[in-house]
Amino acid sequence: MFAVSSNPRDLVKFLTEGNEAAFEALYHLYSRRLALFLIKLLKSEDLACEVLQDVFVKVWNNRKNIDPAQSFRSYLFRIAENCVHDFFRKAARDKKLQEALIRNTCKDYNPVEDTVYMKERNRLLREAIEALPPKRRQIFQSVKIEGRSYEEVSHMLHVSVSTINDHIVKATKSIREDLERYHITVVGILFLYLVS
After folding, report:
1. Which class for 163: exposed (0-12), middle (13-18), buried (19 or more C-beta within 10 A)?
2. Where are the beta strands (DSSP E) in the chain?
3. Is the four-CA dihedral 32, 60, 25, 13 of positive or negative sign?
4. Are residue 65 and residue 122 in the same domain, yes or no?
5. pLDDT 10s digits, 125-172
6. Whole-structure pTM over 0.85, yes or no?
7. End-to-end CA separation in angstroms for the chain
């Protein structure tokens, strides 16, 4: 049995070998801060718990491909962000889920006011995306808006996956900096963009 205080890198190595005790120790080590991160993005403890479980299911299912030499925390938070994006894409096709998310985001939910705010936020997002260099804008839209994988976009544009990743990191940073001036999160506004 592993103690929670065990070296995370060692725990990850045991996890890749299918050790359930190591998986449980990693869950206890990271689940609280990951849950807080998800609550901040989703504005709902229930939704955050649901996505948190999805994240750790993905970790377990993909355990053989995890590199113990890399930061497990970064890996975990990247999966969490992808799960949130997937959740918002799903919500974009589900009206009831959209309404629930909007209610969670706004304490005093008002459909008329919300429509006005949504249009304004969409305008700000579009401006931030339009301000990106053309190639970066195309890659960002393909991956984050259209939901294509890095591999698909890499093949489509005849560039390496690492180039796609570099553009996404730089585009997200640029958009985040633009939107933070208005106290808007990138994930939140991507959801609004998808449902408009």
Report:
1. middle
2. none
3. negative
4. no
5. 888 889 999 999 999 988 877 778 888 999 999 999 899 989 988 988
6. no
7. 50
